[in-house]
Amino acid sequence: MTKLLTPIMSHRAKCLDCCLNQRNEVKHCGAVACPCWPYRFGKRPTSEDKHAHLQAKANQDERNRLMQERQQRADS
Fold first, then answer.
1. Please, are residues 30 and 40 in contact by the beta-carbon 8 Å criterion?
2. pLDDT in tens, 21-70
3. Model-wide pTM > 0.85
4. Cα(71)–Cα(12) distance, rounded to whole angstroms?
5. Domain-by-domain residue ranges, the chain?
6. Cα angle at 52 between 46 and 54, to 5 degrees?
7. What confidence score (pLDDT) does residue 3 get?
8. Where does residue 20 fall: left (phi above 0), alpha (psi -120 to 50 degrees), or beta otherwise?
9. I want to staple 56 with a disulfide (CB 3.0 to 4.6 A). Which of 20, 28, 32, 68 is the partner?
10. How far apart (Å, rounded) are the C-alpha atoms in residues 55 and 61?
């Protein structure tokens, strides 16, 4: 019988899968913009983790917007 995972536990499982089941790698994960990053420990994220994730996501969105603008200018 398969054990049902909570959403937070499933994020933890994805992080472990991404890091080849190396717990230490999950701890030192640098993919802060990843949606799973705040939940990588299998617990509710701290306010500092939430803030770091949102800041990284905003930075990533801005970089993507700038790359799209450059691509549009290059295509013109």
1. no
2. 999 999 999 999 999 999 999 999 999 999 999 999 999 999 999 999 99
3. no
4. 36
5. 7-75
6. 105
7. 81
8. left
9. 32
10. 10
Q: How far is CA 53 from the centre of its chain?
A: 7
Quote the DSSP letter at residue 38: G
In angstroms, how far is CA 18 from the centroid of its own chain?
A: 11
Nearest-angstrom CA–CA distance, 12 and 8? 6
CA 59 to chain centre: 13
The answer to whether residues 26 and 40 touch, using CB atoms and an 8 Å cutoff, is yes
Query: 44, 14, 10: which is closest to 26 by C-alpha?
Result: 14
Residue at 64: amino acid letter: N
Residue with tokens 């994020």: 11
Look up residue 3 and give its amino acid.
K
DSSP code, position 42: S
